[in-house]
Structures are given as structure tokens and as C-alpha cells.
Design goal:
mainly alpha; 8 helices; 160 residues; two-stranded parallel sheet; 66% helix
Length: 160
């Protein structure tokens, strides 16, 4: 099932006893998209500055932020280190994305995943980062509407 709120509502209204499968890859993808939205907003703000060097740095930072940390090239690792030391505004969104990935990278039961997702959503809601606040609402709709869910186990730990 698509994780969009409209799909969740339609399934919950029409088939309340349905058990959905959460695909960890797509949940983490939504977190990655939320981070990318923050990076793009920052890039647009930096483009308005008189010196274009700052904006250029964040264009090249895209993959360093979005890829799995274990899959980064040496250059991307260096870019990520520079971002962590100079762009504090991206640290919280990056941590939010990685903590969401971490929920699915372990051998947790469905109940434990639900508990961690609920905790993650609470943190994301308090973050005041619009893209992560929206994502937390989407995830919560899924968790509330479908108290019965299962993880799509084929994706657990694979390329998250």
C-alpha cells in the first residue's frame, strides 16, 4: 500500500480488518526525501547570498547526505564531515533520517518497530522541521489506522 494519507484513510474506511505491510525501504525513502527538502531549502537560501561558493557546496553535498553512510565514497565522506562541522542546520534532519533507517536495520518485532516509530514520530513532530513534521503525521496515520501491520521482511536491512 502507498503510505500516503489518502490511501491509509481509504483502506481503513473500506477494509478496517486489513493488515498492511510496511515496506522499510519506502519508509526510509520518505525520510530521505524529507532530508532532501531541507537541503534544497537551504540551497535556495544560500543562492541569494552575494557569494555563490556556499550554494555550490550544498549542491555537491546531495549524495553525501542522502546515501547510506556505509555506501559513501571517500570524497562523499569528506563532504559529510565538512557539512557536520559547518552546517549545523542540516545535522538534526540528517540524524532524523538516520534514526528512522536504524529502526528498520535491526531484528525488531512488529510491536517493537511500532513503538520505535511512535517515538520517532513524537521527536519528528517536535523538531519543527516542516518536512519531518509532515512525515511523522503520515507514519502516525498508518500506525493509528492500522493497528495490525506487519513488516515486509524481504526489505529488512537490505539497502536501507
Amino acid at each position: 500500500m502507498d503510505m500516503g494519507p489518502a490511501f491509509a484513510k481509504a483502506f481503513a474506511d473500506r477494509t478496517p480488518d486489513t493488515q498492511i505491510a510496511l515496506d522499510p525501504f519506502h519508509v526510509v525513502k520518505l525520510g530521505t526525501e524529507a532530508l532532501e527538502e531541507v537541503r534544497c531549502d537551504l540551497w535556495r537560501q544560500l543562492r541569494k547570498l552575494p557569494t555563490p561558493d556556499y550554494a555550490r557546496r550544498f549542491v555537491s553535498a546531495r549524495w553525501a547526505l542522502l546515501k547510506n553512510p556505509g555506501d559513501l565514497t571517500q570524497r562523499q565522506n569528506e563532504t559529510l564531515r565538512q557539512i557536520k562541522s559547518t552546517a549545523a542546520i542540516l545535522l538534526k534532519p540528517l540524524e532524523m533520517k538516520e534514526s528512522l533507517r536504524g529502526i528498520f536495520g535491526t531484528g525488531l518485532s512488529n510491536d517493537e518497530v511500532a513503538e520505535f516509530l511512535d517515538s520517532w514520530c513524537a521527536r519528528a513532530s517536535r523538531s519543527q522541521i516542516p518536512s519531518f513534521v509532515r512525515l511523522s503525521k503520515t507514519i502516525r496515520i498508518i500506525l493509528i489506522k492500522f493497528r495490525k501491520f506487519r513488516l515486509h521482511r524481504d526489505q529488512i536491512g537490505a539497502n536501507l
